[in-house]
Each structure stands twice: as C-alpha cells, then as structure tokens.
Amino acid sequence: RPSSEAATPHPATEFFNLARDREFRAAPSVQTVEYSAILDDRTTEICKDLNGVVFRSMNDPNLQKGRPPNHWNCRAILLPVMEDVEPTDPAEVARILRKLPKGFGKP
After folding, report:
1. DSSP label at residue 74
2. Alpha carbon distance 99, 83 (integer Å)
3. Is a pLDDT exceeding 70 seen at residue 78?
C-alpha cells in the first residue's frame, strides 16, 4: 500500500494530464498523442513499455485507459503529435495496458 507521501503527487499529475488532454483536443493541429516517460532507474516497467506509444487518435479507447498517471509517482506525460506518424499497433497497446496496476486503469 503506498504511503501518503507517495500518494500525494497522483492528483496533481492526473489534473496536469487532463488539462493537457483538453488543450490537445481543442487544437486542430494535434492529431494524436505520444506517451513519454522519464527513463531512469525509477521508471516502472509499464512506463518503459508505454514510452513512445503513439495512439491512433484522440478518441482511441487505449488512450483513455493509458493516459498518465498509471501508477503511484508516475512522471509520464503525453506529447502532441502534429504530423503524420504511424500509430502503435492497437493490439500491442492493449497488451501493455493489461499490466496496469489495479485502480489506475481508466474506463
């Protein structure tokens, strides 16, 4: 069970990423987003696996499930994609998202 210190950053990260999501959806130039994790010795396996994933669209169900934060102390963010980039295979994204810790998967 996470300590209260570990739990504290989660709401801030959640609101930060929700605000970014809203801004991206309002910008016609943003076609989709890419998951970007900080890669260091504290990076979790889920964030390593999701790092670099490009979602199919802003309405991709996998994006709704995989939007950061995905665990306690998650430092990942979504980056806007404004050019034609090949999305990550949705089946591969779904496979990765099955590893999400309980309580962090979005509907």
Report:
1. -
2. 29
3. yes
Element (H, E) at 33: strand 32-36
Give 5-57 pLDDT, tens digit per residue: 444 446 777 888 889 989 999 999 998 999 999 999 999 999 999 999 999 99
* β-strand pairing of 32-36 with 77-81: antiparallel
Tokens of 64: 């709704």
Contact assessment for residue 78 and residue 33, using Cβ atoms and an 8 Å cutoff: yes
Q: Whole-angstrom Cα distance, residue 29 to residue 44?
A: 31
Contacts 24+ apart (CB under 8 A), 12-16: 13/68, 13/69, 13/74, 13/75, 14/69, 16/77
